[in-house]
Amino acid sequence: MNNQPLQILILKADRLYAEFLRQHVGHAFPRVRTTVASSVAEARELLGRVAFDLLLTGLGEHTGGDALELVAQCKRAPLRARRVVVLLDRHEYRVLAALRALPVDGIFDPAEDCPATLAAALPAVVRGLRYHSPGAAARLRQLAAAPGALFRILTDFEQVVLSVIGDGCDDLAAAAQLGLSPATISTVRRALHRKLGVQHRGELVRMAAQKGYVRFTPAGVERPGYGLLAAAYQPRHRPRMPREEAVPATA
Fold it and tell me: Which domain holds residue 205?
């Protein structure tokens, strides 16, 4: 029988909230070793060194990276997390849309779930079961069924461009960041205006912020899940392989 304590990693920038989570993790498991990371960069480094039984992470602002992208990668080498529970501390469209496709074992909504619920749910998740807060599950179902959901209206490429121009940058700056021509960005911007029903650049920035494609923080602009969108878009732009030269026929 394995008597080793469970290894649990908490990713939360707020130290007071992280300590609150640590206490409830201690209530949930009789033998546990809990590590707290305050940034995505720190969590990524720890996951590369230690095999954690559970990653418990918020999806709000973290210094040093994108929590959504970390969740997408944390179960694949070189990172090592057996189970993942996210704290749904953001209800933005972009976060909910990303969660539909991420390898998440549990979703805990601090706005509606009491701490005792978390303490009861974590052991079940570690045993291989799943837990979705009722409100979170309802939001995900509603998003999946909504005919006007942005993942139905916009292509992956258009969402990538929206994530970039959502900070208010002009076509030239967006083109430089994406490695495209300003004319291409202008064409996509016009398509976004039409599909989203907005008239000018300011409305597009407001829409991008409201839907969670960009966040304006004291540390700068964050783009939740940008790497996931870019990965979905990039395969269509792989360079062509050079043609093989014809081998002369021998007599």
Answer: 150-235
pTM for the whole thing? 0.85
31 in any annotated domain:
yes
Contact 22, 16 (CB under 8 A): no
Render pLDDT for 23-78 as a digit per residue (tens, 0 to 9).
Answer: 999 999 989 999 999 999 999 999 999 999 999 999 876 666 899 999 999 999 99
Q: Could you tell me if 29 and 123 are in contact, meaning their C-beta atoms sit under 8 angstroms apart?
A: yes
Q: Is residue 196 part of a domain?
A: yes
Q: Both tokens of residue 185?
A: 């960005």
Is the domain of 19 the same as that of 135? yes
- In the chain, how many domains are there? 2
- Return the SS3 of 82: strand
Measure the CA–CA gap between 101 and 200, rounded to whole angstroms: 32
Burial of 13: CB neighbours in 10 Å, binned 0-12, 13-18, 19+: middle
Alpha carbon 95 to its chain's center: 6
Q: What is the DSSP string of 14-38?
A: -HHHHHHHHHHHHHH-SSEEEEEES
